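Course assignment 3, question 2. Fill in each field.
Student: A.L.
Task: Predict the tertiary structure for the chain below.
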Amino acid sequence: MDYVEDASSFLKALRPVVRRLAVLSFPSTHWFRTPFRKVRYDLRNCPVYFYDDARIHTLCTGAGFSEVRIQKIPGPGMDYHVSLRP
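Answer field:
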């Protein structure tokens, strides 16, 4: 989900095609790593988006998923592993 500009629309489009489970990765923010990554991708004219667990939960439930499991991958600035069930 790093490069998806409109995560809400993407998740809403994904919901009808998911029969049992969808697994996604969302990038997290880190006070040190995130600004460097943002600048690096901005220089390439490639927007990158970051999330926290509350935002992920809001987006996924808003898209109609009934079960949202969010696991933070250990380590600084690492992603979230998200399992979604209809």
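Instructor remarks: The beta strands are 22-26, 67-72, 80-85. The mean pLDDT is 95.
Grade: pending
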